Amino acid sequence: PYDVLVVGGGPAGAAAAIYAARKGIRTAIVAERFGGQVMDTVGIENFISVPYTEGPKLAASLEQHVKQYGVEVITEQRAAAISKDGYVNVDLASGATLKSRAVILATGARWRDLNVPGELEYRTKGVAYCPHCDGPFFKGKRVAVIGGGNSGIEAAIDLAGIVEHVTVVEFADTLRADEVLQKKARSMGNIDIIMSARTTEVIGDGSKVVGMDYEDRTTGEIKHLAVAGIFVQIGLVPNTEFLKGSEVALTRFGEIEIDTKGATSLPGVYAAGDATTVPFKQIIISMGAGATAALGAFDYLIRNAAP
Ligand code: FAD
Q: Which stretches in the chain have pLDDT values below 70?
């Protein structure tokens, strides 16, 4: 068995593994894909002390740093369940079970899908999730942003500087975004905001997006928007489905509940990063949380004898 098994190889998991390994204890990482969301990121300008880097480059440095400490890295394996019998057991989808005295969950999150016809078909052909990454492809064109929360309104403001026009499409009859963001968006000449609008379909011409339909929820009428890009900004979903029904408590949003040391409700199991209740989902925050969870787990190990 391991002393610390980290599930997830994003910034949180990498930081947790390094902090654990530096205590001289047997540490492993199991991950579906090393690097996590960072692998899908182009430019990164807010990783403090590094003015500019790119996702794959940062992910490669993370892996190199982890391997320098002799951490066992197991990739292309998905955790499917967790249980405890003295040791914490992590069952993999492949059928194997990994045993460890302590486990750190750092399985991150993914963008929430719209789940409407055309979305999957036109993903990367006009349907986008990251304004920072894909905004420049729509220079001079009309785009829609689905979602009027902070991320949607931030995306609209960001895109308005690049594209010709942005329409924000919000399901509810009010915007959830902070007032200061709404004010900023309303002050920009090329942002329209439509409320009470349920997106019903992504329309394409066979090779790329040409528009979208939505239902006006006040009248039931179906309306059309001619756009070249659709940025989906309706939230992040934590990758915690495999914990449902386990002793690890989740919020109603599926986020892992943690305390200030990163401890979950199951003794010996810690968590960090986007998969948890941490309010901000960022690289540097995930790394700090990973370090916290590893120190929390080490604290647990020195207080609890091996089974
Ligand atoms: P993740 O990076 O999501 O990593 C999760 C890890 O867990 C992965 O290795 C994954 O394969 C693995 N995993 C998931 N489920 C399982 C399972 N069941 N079993 C085994 N392994 C599993 N943040 C910034 O600070 N600056 C930016 O510029 C920035 N830009 C971004 C751009 C994009 C396109 C995206 C998507 C995100 C961006 N972010 C940015 C956010 C940042 O990437 C995340 O906050 C950060 O990666 C979270 O780290 P994490 O380790 O918690 O999770």
A: 42
Which of 245, 283, 267, 232 is CA-nearest to residue 106?
283
pLDDT for 46: 86
ipTM of the complex: 0.99
Contact 93, 80 (CB under 8 A): yes
Distance 6 CA to ligand 1 centre (A): 14
- The DSSP element (H or E) to which 292 belongs, if any, is helix 283-303
Cα 96 to Cα 293: distance, rounded to the nearest angstrom? 25
C-alpha 68, offset from chain centre: 26
Fill in the amino acid letter for 165: H
Cα–Cα distance, 42 to 59 (Å, whole number): 11
pTM for this structure? 0.84
Residues with CB under 6 A from ligand 1: 7-13, 30-34, 36-38, 40-41, 44, 46, 78-79, 106-109, 130, 132-133, 239, 242, 273-275, 281-284, 286
Q: What DSSP letter does each residue of 117-174 carry, written as one string?
A: TTTTTTBTTTEES-HHHHGGGGTTSEEEEE--SHHHHHHHHHHHTTSSEEEEE-SSSS
The closest of 67, 197, 81 to 145, measured between CA atoms, is 197
Q: Report the distance separating Cα 84 and Cα 103, nearest Å.
A: 10
- Two structure tokens written together for 233: 């900004």
Task: Give the per-residue pLDDT at 9.
Answer: 98
Which residues, at least 6 apart from 279, have a Cβ–Cβ distance to it below 8 Å?
none
